[in-house]
Amino acid sequence: MFTTADGAPLRPDYLTGRFRRLVTASGQPLIRLHDLRHGAATLALAAHTDLKVVQAMLEHASIVLTADTYVSVLPEVAHEAPTARLVLNAASALGRPLGG
């Protein structure tokens, strides 16, 4: 949640519009504000951050959701990260392979 200096919540549409204007002014390709969340998670995994840490960062209720969403993006990370390997092996044992 983002707030004003006095602690009042900012409206989501204000943040979206402000972000869009900043990106446009920077000359960068237009992305959604929410895409920053995905980018942060992907970069964290590429930097070999433990999957459990990324789950906590994103406040996902389940590590399976985090793995299913992001492990397929960086398959090389999935096979190198011990936590991701455990999740993938457990899912596979249940007959529910992730990231395929």
Q: Explain this structure to me?
A:
- With 100 residues, the chain is mainly alpha-helical.
- The protein is built from 6 helices and no strands.
- The chain has helices at residues 12-26, 35-46, 51-58, 63-70, 75-80, 82-93.
- Helix 2 (35-46) packs antiparallel against helix 3.
- The longest helix is centred in the first third of the chain and has 15 residues, at 12-26.
- The chain starts with 11 loop residues before the first helix and ends in a 7-residue tail after the last helix.
- The mean pLDDT is 80.
Labels describing this entry:
about 100 residues, mainly alpha, 6 helices, elongated
* CA-based gyration radius: 17 Å
Order of helices and strands: HHHHHH
- Overall pLDDT level: 80
Sum up the overall morphology in one term: elongated
In short:
The chain has 6 helices and no strands. The protein is mainly α and 100 residues long.
Blueprint of the fold:
Layout: H1 12-26, H2 35-46, H3 51-58, H4 63-70, H5 75-80, H6 82-93
Helix pairs in contact: 2-3, 3-4
